[in-house]
Amino acid sequence: MSRLYKIWTHAFKVNFLFIIAYASLFSSVRAQQVIEKQDIYTFEKSQYEKVDFFADASPMTKEKCDGVIYISEGENFYKRILPIQGMVNVKWFGAKGNGDKNDKGTDDTQAVKKAIEVLSRIYKGYPLSGGNVYAGFTLYFPAGKYIVSETIKLPNGITLRGESVVSTIIHAKTPKILFTNIQGFGKNGIEQIASENVIVEHITLTQGGIELQQATGSLIKDVRIMNLSGKGTDTGIIIRLSVNLKIENVKIFGSSGVGIHYEDAAGTGPSTTTTLDRIWVAHCKTGMLVDGKTGGSHGIFSSKIYNSIFEYNDIGLEFKGNVENFSVRDSHFEQNRKNTILISGRAKIFFENNWTDKGGITIQSNTDKNSKIFLKEDGMPVDNLSSINNIFYQQK
């Protein structure tokens, strides 16, 4: 064996031993940086990483520990390592989701409120240019029925996500608005403060609806809202002063009032650019009410309904007040008992490729003479044509 080979072998052994020692030291340090804890509610094991600073870059203190995301061990502080999706399980905060078929179970209101309060403090938003806000977290509701007895306020950038519409239910103990983005009044005591970029998805709501005001850039998707009656609320979704709001694949079933109430209200500007796609509204007094009631520079503008179903309501779809540049396309109207589509006020509406089994568009006598109704490849008849000056047909 050559001397050179012996030297090389010795060097290799030394390097190998050094790597082993370094790896062992690194593992030891890593073990001190990451600890494992069993969740007291879900009994799952979670890892926590050692930190010296809070989410806002301020030094950690025991007062900043919430016991769920941030914890302390002796003089050290740790932050929970979230799953890859970044979702926070509402059950970590004590929610049970154990409601039964008779709507009996633990009241999860305080657990949900605590989760939102803690996460809003950790993921606190800050303003960007153009009136935009940077913020956001996802609060996840695993399969179960969650009983709630208060209206829950949704902050900027929140995503409420269930497992699916058939496995996650949030039930209002008594009829009421379940979720609102209205935070309260501003310093002047008049102007309401409303959050933006709110997402609600993959959840069924029973005996309670959603209220959204302004709600710029918000989304309601894959949601079912059912069994709405009583003084608390008889409306599935209330929309006011919205901008760039999207409602997709939503079913509202069974309301003694209005399935979706899209209304203008006194505020900074009109309601605009709201898109409703694949909505299904059935067994309501009024399926959807589009009410641009304030007039003047206000109203409901540049909004649309696509690929939707309105059936077994007293009134399928109603337009009131100042409504302009509104489109209804590729939608289905069936067994609406009193009116399929009812129009009054000042309306400029475009209908294309819709179907109805009976009835059609009814124009009330108080409709503005300058209203314009456009029908393209649309088989719905129009009643009371003499009420307005402008109606335009374009067939195949």
Automatic annotation (TrEMBL):
Residue ranges crossing the lipid bilayer per the database entry: none
InterPro entries in alphabetical order: PbH1 (IPR006626), Pectin_lyas_fold (IPR012334), Pectin_lyase_fold/virulence (IPR011050), RHGA/B-epi-like_pectate_lyase (IPR024535)
Domain Rhamnogalacturonase A/B/Epimerase-like pectate lyase: 88-293
Pfam families assigned to the protein according to its UniProt record, in alphabetical order: Pect-lyase_RHGA_epim
SMART domains: PbH1
Record Gene3D superfamilies: Single-stranded right-handed beta-helix, Pectin lyase-like
Name by which UniProt lists this protein: Rhamnogalacturonase A/B/Epimerase-like pectate lyase domain-containing protein
